[in-house]
Amino acid sequence: IRFLQGEGTKVKGGDEVSIVPAIAGGR
């Protein structure tokens, strides 16, 4: 998560898991 490095710092764990699939899925 380099492009979300700033946000990744805040969202550790569950939130991060929710963000990654959302971008990877394209939905």
TrEMBL record:
UniProt-recorded name of the protein: MoaD/ThiS family protein
Organism of origin: Tectimicrobiota bacterium
Source species taxonomy: Bacteria, Pseudomonadati, Nitrospinota/Tectimicrobiota group, Candidatus Tectimicrobiota
